[in-house]
Amino acid sequence: MVAGYQAESVWAERTFAPLASDALKPSEKVDLAIVGGGILGLSSALHAARSGLSVRVLEAAHVGDRASGLNGGQVIPGLKYDPDWLLQHFGEKRGESLARFGASLADGVFDLIQREELDVPVQRAGWIQAAHSEAALRAIEQRATQWIARGVPAKLLSAAEVTRLTGARGYHGGWLDPRGGAIQPLAYTRELARVAVDAGARIAENTRVTALKRENAAWVLKTADGRSLSAKGVIIATNAYADALVPGLARTLLPLHSFQIATAPLSDALLSSILPEGQVVSDSRRIIIYYRKGPNGRLLLGGRGSMSDPADASAWAHLEHALKRLYPALTSVPIEKRWYGRVALTLDHLPHVHEPEPGLLVAAGCQGRGIGLMTGLGPRLVEYFVTRDAELLPFPPTPIRPIPFHAFRNIGIGAAIAWYRLVDMLEK
């Protein structure tokens, strides 16, 4: 992570078999090159290899070292926006397609784990969105009503029901979406890599792509160690770790740090009163807090943190404060794990798909739903690459439009996080 403080995720407690990493050979040629070995890149690689394409995945670090293996593991259905909004803003045809795509995302993850027999711990008791204010509760009621009208057996929750299901204090109510759940994200990412390799994809770890250029009918990718790869098409799956490889891409995204903590294993008495039925929770705050039970009887809690890399454990103090506010009984329970990863948001809170040139595809912007979204988006990108049928893409490709004054983003985002955190605290 950073010099001066060793951050370690709870997911890394598990031992994984070495990945069959395959170093890039000089001047290789493939049908599809994928830059980034996270969930999007690996989902794309698996589908492409199963479709008969030759595939190379180039990962700058190790598979699972970044956001795909460091997130909270919550699998949340839907998109940031609800079905009615999608229909209003995209029209009947595209809006309905987006709503169906969002509705399929959680099922897609759990079905893939079962179908491929992935060695991934799963808990699927549903997702609770808890309202921190009366205004938030009204918005949540509208969301739940829309999904119930679409046949989802969701349930509106009173304040008392939220308290019973979470054991947490201070919520006004919420809703329970049974489609949601949780996985072990590092195991999921590593297992995606394993089955992609078994299907014929080849993965090169510690291989940073430093240049990308169109030459005649192919794309040529240059790596930091001076090697090259020629491909008919390229998928850029770097998300929040986007750099200058695609001009302007990094300046379309707002990179944030998602910080997380894990308690020491809890006693049976505490476990019986905290999330007794195993749901995952995220609340309605502008700077959301999300939590779940983790391995070995721990409670895991996360939220947005400092824009700078942490130097010591105090960088997680805001999460420890939130934990004690929600669960006063945990005040004396030690925090044993602290970690963080980088996530990417977009200004319109929608995932973006770009095709700057034919055969060069980019997808980025998870909005807190990366596991389901990137699992589902990968096959769609591959199908579009093969068929050129734009109807297969859930999100219409848009031009790369850098955010104005992007260089000042850290100052602005840091100030906004502090302000919204204060508003969330005062709001009733």
From TrEMBL:
Pfam families registered for this protein in UniProt: DAO (PF01266)
Listed GO CC annotations: cytoplasm
Keyword check for Hydrolase: no
InterPro entries, per database record: FAD-dep_OxRdtase, FAD/NAD-bd_sf
Residues covered by the FAD dependent oxidoreductase domain: 31-381
A GO molecular-function descriptor: oxidoreductase activity
Record bears the keyword Oxidoreductase: yes
Keyword terms of this UniProt record: Oxidoreductase
Record protein name field: Glycine/D-amino acid oxidase
Source organism of the structure: Hyphomicrobium facile
